[in-house]
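Hi,

I'm pasting everything inline rather than attaching a file, because the server keeps stripping attachments. The sequence lines come first, and each chain or strand is labelled.
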Amino acid sequence: MHSPFERALKFGFLGLAVLSLSAQREPVLVPEVSQSRIEVRQGFTGANLLLYGAVIDPVGGRERTQYDIVVVLKGPAEPVRLREKDRIAGIWMNAGSSDFRSVPSFFAVASSRPVDEIVDERTAAIYELGTDFIQLSPSGEIEPEEQNRFAAGLVDMRQRAGLYKVDPDGVRISEGVLYQARIALPSNVITGPYTAETFAIAEGRVLASATAEIEVAKVGLEGQVVNAAERSSLLYGLVAIILSLGMGLIAGRYFNRS
Amino acid sequence: MDVYLPIANLSVNGLFIVLLGGLTGILSGLFGVGGGFLTTPLLIFYGIPPTVAAASAATQVTGASVSGVLAHSKRNGVDYRMGAVMVGGGIVGALIGALLFNVLEALGQIDVVISILYVVLLGSIGTLMMREAATALRPGAETAGSQPRKRRHHPLVAGLPFRWRFYRSGLYISPLAPLILGTLVGVLTMLMGVGGGFLLVPAMLYLLGMSGNVVVGTSLFQILFVTMVTTMTHALTTKAVDIVLAGLLLLGSVLGAQFGTQIAMKARPEVLRLVLAAIVLLVALRMLYGLGVQPDEIYTVSPL
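And the predicted assembly:
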């Protein structure tokens, strides 16, 4: 099998050859994604995304640096209102709420070691290398303490839904050059543009980074259904009614005859 | 068998949904109710977003009731005049329901209102049915029950102005009564994703005092039209009708309904009513439990 990984290998060595001609001091990251487009169609139960590539050392560095790789995959961000249930008169109902302006619909971090062993908290926060560091852009007048509780609740909820996750050994590095990260997308992902950011880190410093885009789209019948429901709602409603009337009538007639 | 639901935006076990539709179909064949009161909560427990569950269940009820309407109309079991008045009310009710839905959703209280409605309505109807069925099943009830109950409408209904004749129902009452009844049920159809048969049938019998042989047919007639309007309203406003979900539910329910009709011909009606009452009460209790116990999910997200 001609795996994407093998292709990356070739690609990587080619890159190495080209780069060795120019004198470079910072390492270079060459990222590749197994699929630049994920199609959500009937029977979609999720997808496995393979992000791979090579870290190319600056020329002349005989003593090879040991890099750590962290990959962050983010789904399209949306503004949301988060509501919190509380017990009021014996009933659990929505009480407080908080608004966030940019909540990624999907957020996954894969790394070659636990992130807290790779970088300090400040660096992790800058590059959003963990679910605690997602920049949710809270808005509205609300006390910071309460804001934190809401943010933690949101992250926890998304984590249990499989939409936010951290995998401290989701990246495999071979020969100190090639890396390979696997991130599983569940079936309930939102469609839209996703970005995968890859960071090469050594001695607590981000030395190189690169971004790849992945498009998640509903296609085929599924895409058409969503399109029809959104754009030609009247027709869609009629089709739904006719479908239910038709199925009811056919079943009724068929069974009454037999 | 994994099936991806495009509007609900998640993958479900298709067989499970068909079986769920089948279960409600059996109920509708057995008791002449749409079964929406069972579909919607079960879909929500399964993880379908509440709005999508309510909208798609309404679509399913249309299919489940159409063959019933035809069967009843063949044996003159539908009072079209009464039905038309109630449908008129039902359409108004569905539109009011859509407004309420939007307001409650903006306030973030739609879920709790739906749950409370379920607990109150199913709880009270279930208790009434249970009591009635238990009385009928008690030994010696046959002789006492054989004396026909005197049919009369509620004094409130008698007090309303204008009177129309409803020949098939054997009534001379104000059309306002069925209009108001239809409106109320229309609101519930939109909010709860139920046809409202479990509410309409007793109300038509005990409030309006309609003749028993047209009650089920006329109730199905109203349900058929109001669920069609509800499907359309949802398609235009909430855009939450999942046609794949509705199709799977329908597949199960049209088959289940035939099966239910077969059982209904063999079983004792009192026993059937007792079983229905027990199911209705179970759903109400499950909903009550959900309201009183700390939910697994404290937080909910809604788009801004």
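Chain A has six helices and 13 strands.

If the labels don't parse on your end, tell me and I'll reformat.
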